[in-house]
Write a structure and sequence with these properties.
Blueprint (H helix, E strand, L loop, with lengths): L1 E5 L9 H4 L4 E5 L13 E4 L7 H5 L6 E4 L9 H6 L3 E4 L5 H16 L2 H9 L17 E5 L3 H12 L3 E5 L5 H7 L2 E2 L2 H7 L2 E4 L13 H4 L6 E5 L8 H9 L3 E6 L18 E3 L8 H19 L15 H24 L4 E10 L6 H14 L11 H7 L3 E7 L7 E9 L3 E9 L3 E7 L2 E5 L4 E8 L4 H11 L4 E8 L5 E8 L5 H8 L4 E8 L1
Parallel strand pairs: 1-2, 1-3, 3-4, 4-5, 6-7, 6-9, 7-8, 9-10, 10-11, 11-12, 13-14
Antiparallel strand pairs: 13-15, 15-16, 16-17, 17-18, 19-21, 19-22, 20-21
Helix pairs in contact: 4-6, 12-13, 13-14
Bound molecules: nicotinamide-adenine-dinucleotide (NAD) and 3-phosphoglyceric acid.
Keywords: Amino-acid biosynthesis, NAD, Oxidoreductase, Serine biosynthesis
GO molecular function: phosphoglycerate dehydrogenase activity
Enzyme class: oxidoreductase
């Protein structure tokens, strides 16, 4: 049974993909009210539930956190990543609703609609108190031209506004295509009549509009925040509302929600909504449906496509990656068992068609498989990179355009404290994965099952001696390959069996004069 806890109000209809599937139990209850958090495999949230490290510690079975919306600033993504928990969101399900809400706020702000509405309901008729401004011909400054910023720009243009944009990641081509003016931040501050922010809340965007930058705006500017509380500094806003530099402010989001203690709400020129950007039937259905489908993919062992902490990959893309993923896992596990020593760095080199795939994913998969042999915690492609770095293991990925004779190959080199080891493998369509070289010895074997690696001197009789000892212990050899670099030098043997070998057999083999090293490997 896969158990899902839905902590915030999320559209029940949108949960349909999970409700219709078998062996999934869905409980709709706030985390604060649930006593047995440890039983859940998945957690669904919106912006209200704070997914802290402490909460994750109470949920040791948690595998996936689904944010039914865009912003993940209420989730400690770094901690989730460390713990190997996938974090997904619904990036575009609420774009239109939020853009429409922002536009409604802008129109309300310049025409004083909320204030006029209150006044009329108080039985007043003060027409001259609510004289507004036209949007037509004004300059709207958009900070952050992502999904919402772009939709907002389209609506503003339809109202005859000039649209100026600041977004450090915006190309000239894209701004021309959308029909907006690309500016630097200072220019936008100096020129815009209305400024609206549509960035995520990050270290860089926190307080982006602050005492200094708001000071550079036009006198009488309107400011709008329907993205995240804190992008516009609330204390600075109060200062500039008080001295009249800022004419009006529209806020859907606050530094602390609900905003019980902020002075901002005391200003007549401030209009506010309680984080309603995504609160439409359509958006809620979209986001819940989007994340439910993703979680179902995860349960079915398929690739999720909207993960915050995994390389994004479609099912189609994963089909191409899958053979190399298997090969990488086999090599990672083999090398980890073979090299029983601390490791300093891991290099993985891709060649041929292996170099054309999503290599970042495969590299993490190989590292996860390597670390799994050494650590007794949940390790997967989500946390492999972080855990390796935390343990001082450097990992390097190389993509080569050389051709060493295979249509594809993957070579993993591990620098340990005492020695360096290296394995090269290839994936043959309809035939599977093969290891073609171990520490420079050419060989050819299928990396699977109960294996025995033997390093020995290349002298007559060694194969017979190994066979005799195994026979004496009633061990049947399933496959056997040998490889050497030169006649009479060092050589290796790779054998596979139907059952694991026990220690007395390994000790008996090690006692043979011609044998240098013996290692049983389970793949
Ligand atoms: N009020 C609501 O209910 C509501 C609803 C949905 C989203 N949001 C908020 O809106 C934000 C934007 O959503 P989106 O879907 O458009 O995201 P998005 O990722 O599509 O767009 C964000 C844009 O911000 C830009 N950006 C990043 N750092 C910047 C910086 N320092 N200066 C200028 N631009 C910068 C990025 O390049 C990107 O184009 C979300 O992160 C979320 O916090 C709020
Ligand atoms: O980031 C988002 O998607 C919005 O802020 C919506 O948040 P909500 O799901 O709490 O309405």
């Amino acid at each position: 049974m896969f158990r899902v806890l839905v902590s915030d109000p999320i559209s029940r209809d949108g949960l349909e993909p999970l409700l219709e599937a078998e062996n999934i139990e869905i409980v709709q209850k706030n985390v604060a009210e649930e006593e047995n958090l440890a039983q859940y495999d998945a957690l669904f949230v919106r912006s209200a539930t704070k997914v802290t490290e402490q909460l994750m510690n109470q949920m040791p079975n948690l595998k996936i956190i689904a944010r039914a919306g865009v912003g993940v600033d209420n989730i400690d993504v770094d901690q989730a990543t460390r713990k190997g928990i996938i974090v997904i969101n619904a990036p575009d399900g609420n774009t239109i609703s939020t853009a429409e809400h922002t536009f409604a706020m802008i129109a309300s702000l310049v025409r004083h609609i909320p204030q006029a509405n209150m006044s009329v309901k108080n039985r007043e008729w003060k027409r001259s108190s609510f004289v507004g401004s036209e949007l037509h011909g004004k300059m709207l400054g958009i900070v952050g031209l992502g999904r919402i910023g772009t939709e907002l720009a389209r609506r503003a243009k339809a109202f005859g506004m000039r649209v100026a944009v600041f977004d450090p990641f915006l190309t000239k081509e894209r701004s021309e295509k959308i029909g907006v003016e690309k500016h630097d931040f200072e220019e936008l501050l100096n020129q815009a009549d209305i400024i609206t922010v549509h960035t995520p809340l990050t270290k860089e965007t926190k307080g982006l509009l602050n005492k200094e930058t708001i000071g550079k705006t036009k006198k009488g500017v309107y400011l709008v925040n329907c993205a995240r509380g804190g992008i516009i500094d609330e204390d600075a806003l109060c200062t500039y509302l008080e001295n009249g530099h800022v004419r009006g402010v529209a806020l859907d989001v606050f530094e602390v929600e609900p905003p019980e203690h902020t002075r901002l709400l005391e200003f007549e020129q401030v209009i506010a909504t309680p984080h309603l950007g995504a609160s439409t039937k359509e958006a809620q259905l979209n986001v819940a449906y989007q994340v439910s489908k993703e979680v179902l993919l995860f349960i079915q062992g398929k690739q999720v496509t909207t993960s915050i902490n995994l390389p994004a990959m479609s099912d189609e893309a994963y089909k191409k990656v899958a053979p190399y993923d298997t090969l990488a896992q086999k090599i990672g596990s083999f090398l980890s068992q073979y090299m029983n020593q601390p490791v300093q760095s891991i290099t993985i080199e891709y060649e041929g068609t292996a170099a054309e795939i999503e290599t970042a994913y495969v590299t993490k998969s190989m590292i996860a498989s390597f670390l799994k042999q050494r650590m007794d915690i949940n390790i997967n492609t989500v946390n492999a990179g972080v855990l390796a770095r935390e343990r001082g293991i450097q990992f390097i990925e190389k993509v080569s355009d050389q051709n060493s004779g295979y249509s594809n190959s993957m070579k993993v080199t591990i620098h340990g404290e005492q020695t360096t080891s290296e394995i090269k493998g290839t994936s043959i369509p309809h035939f599977g994965e093969r290891i073609v070289s171990v520490n420079g010895f050419s060989i050819d074997f299928h990396p699977s099952g109960h294996l025995l690696y033997i390093q020995h001197t290349d002298v007559p009789g060694v194969i017979g001696n190994v066979g005799r000892i195994l026979g004496n212990h009633s061990v049947n050899i399933a496959t056997m390959q040998v490889g050497r670099k030169e006649k009479g030098g060092e050589a290796i043997m790779m054998l596979s069996f139907d059952r694991p070998l026990d220690q007395p057999i390994l000790s008996a083999l090690t006692e043979l004069d011609e044998i240098v090293f013996v290692k049983a490997i389970e793949l």
